[in-house]
Amino acid sequence: MLNVQDLRAAYGASEVLHGLDFTVQPNEIVAIMGRNGMGKTTLMKTLMGIVPTKSGSVSVDQTPITDMKSHQRVANGIAYVPQGRMIFSAMTVQENVETGLTVTGERSVPGDIYELFPVLLEMKNRRGGNLSGGQQQQLAIARALASKPKVLLLDEPTEGIQPSIIREMGRTLRKIRDEKGLSIVVSEQVLSFALDVADRVLVIENGNFVHEATRDAVDEAAVSRFLSV
Amino acid sequence: MFADYSSQELLAIFAMQGFAGLILFSVFVLMALGLAIIFGQMGVINMAHGEFMILGAYVTYMLSNFFEAYLPDLFGIYFFIAMICAFIASGALGLFVEWALIRHLYKRPLDTLLATWGLSLILQQIYRSVFGAREVGVTIPDWMMGSLPLTDMIEVPINGIFVMVLAVSISIAVYLMMFRSSWGKQVRAVVQNRVMAGAVGINTEWTDRLTFGIGCGVAGVAGSAFTMIGSTGPTAGQLYIVDTFLVVVFGGAASLLGTIASAFSISQAQSIMEFFLSGSMAKVLTLLTVVGILMIRPQGLFALKLRK
């Protein structure tokens, strides 16, 4: 569903991603693990067209999106939940979700989004900025789902969220995958969460993938070594 | 200073000055609405905003001459057509200016200030070359002339009422566009976080261009309305720009309601003081008060309360 070939990205002259190759199957959840500064967020931003691609190609469902702007990528089925949520804080919860409808042309929020996140329905007239961190995370996921993506990218969704909500989020992500049949790429530092949700784990270090394992075959000790500082 | 007037006269003075203040209020609102979109929402300091208004005024002037010469039967309603044309002309110029100039300067606010100031000088010279340096006035249709006598001493001019109705309807239209339409939602999303707005699927470049164009179009309609109450010259826009920024900043840049409230308080204060003091003294007092309030409340009268 998502196909990335020899992807390179740089900030100015310093290259951060040194030719990444990976594919994500339909209905698959892939976790990208790595310490801070190893290129997880840059990878997400490059996939979204926020950081320019230096070379290589990205395609979603056989459509090449490498040369597209962010909003065109969204229209071609990729959606993004950034690190730090980045919800529109002065807009209401409902308006936040509705911004995701831009590419589908729908006027009102589909009911299944509020079924996944009932708390958002209760708070739909509150301003996004007045929600708690966990609620904002749910709002950011709802906003991304509103554009009916084929591939959902989540950048460190567990950052700054309490453990009970993290477990809840893992359940929700799997439920979204099962109900909507989309592919999910999630970047993580927390191994337990990654093993909880992902079918496959990739470890990134200094802009290269250094380890890959399916959930059943994952060597926890080896992955933890990559994650320890 | 009230001693020379009887109580009945004072009442009439306050009523009529209050009404004059209401007309000034409508004028301020009309001027400020376009700027509230461009400066308040997009954060672009557009020094040429006054010139976009004047473009609307000149369009109205040309249409008034055209209708007088070729379609005298329809002269009574030319003003409505003129407003639509003014919106289209100023809006189209706005779209072009955003494409040619402003979009390269979003990250450089001070350069925007200089560039748009230069643009205002260019536009002024174009108006001077095309329409001449003299001020021009439009012919007002008969039904807009004269005034309505309310009592023996209190009269209200009809064109003033017309400008007020116009200000109210345009305010409502802008409110509906900003807060009820999907365009408004996109504008607010882009303003709050341009990168993220793109990443949820909003075409940020087009949204910026359209927003700038609509702001300029509203300025054009305001300019069109001013021809009802004053004459138009190439540099008339300069007279408006200071008041306009004052209203928007005092009201709280991102708040439409704040803009309206600040236009109301500034115009009423100015108009009532003008009768008893000289015009410039009234202006000085108003400015001092506004400066004082902004020192205590730099965010303006109305600002959103949010978690930071």
Short description:
The complex is a heterodimer of chains A (229) and B (308). Helix content of chain A is 34%, strand content 28%.
Provide a descriptive summary of the structure in words:
The complex is a heterodimer of chains A (229) and B (308). Chain A has 229 residues and is α/β, with parallel strands linked by helices. In chain A, 34% of the residues lie in helices and 28% in strands. Chain A is built from nine helices and ten strands. A six-stranded mixed beta sheet of chain A has the order 6-7-8-3-9-10, sandwiched between helices. In chain A, 45% of the residues are buried. With 308 residues, chain B is mainly alpha-helical. Chain B has one domain (18-235). Chain B has helices spanning 7-41, 49-70, 78-100, 109-131, 158-180, 182-192, 194-199, 204-226, 236-251, 256-276, 279-296; strands at residues 147-149, 155-157. Chain B is globular. The mean pLDDT of chain B is 86. The chains are: A alpha/beta (229), B mainly alpha (308). At the A-B interface, helix 2 and helix 3 of A face helix 6 and helix 7 of B.
Describe the largest sheet of chain B. 2 strands, antiparallel
What average pLDDT do the residues of chain A reach?
90
The dominant shape of chain B is globular
Q: What integer is the average pLDDT of chain B?
A: 86
One letter per element, helices H and strands E, the order of chain B comes to: HHHHEEHHHHHHH
Trace the largest sheet of chain B across and list its strands.
1-2
Question: Can you identify the CATH class of chain A?
Answer: Alpha Beta
Structural category of chain B is: mainly alpha
Helix content of chain A: 25-40%
Based on the structure given, which CATH architecture of chain A is correct? 3-Layer(aba) Sandwich
Strand order of the largest sheet of chain A: 6-7-8-3-9-10
Low-confidence spans of chain A: none
Order of helices and strands of chain A: EEEHEEHEHHHHEHEHEEH
Helices and strands, with pairings:
The complex is a heterodimer of chains A (229) and B (308).
Chain A: E1 2-11, E2 14-24, E3 29-33, H1 40-48, E4 53-60, E5 63-64, H2 70-75, E6 78-81, H3 93-99, H4 111-116, H5 118-122, H6 133-145, E7 151-155, H7 163-180, E8 183-188, H8 191-197, E9 200-205, E10 208-214, H9 220-227
Parallel strand pairs in A: 3-8, 3-9, 6-7, 7-8
Antiparallel strand pairs in A: 1-2, 1-4, 4-5, 9-10
Helix pairs in contact in A: 3-6
Chain B: H1 7-41, H2 49-70, H3 78-100, H4 109-131, E1 147-149, E2 155-157, H5 158-180, H6 182-192, H7 194-199, H8 204-226, H9 236-251, H10 256-276, H11 279-296
Antiparallel strand pairs in B: 1-2
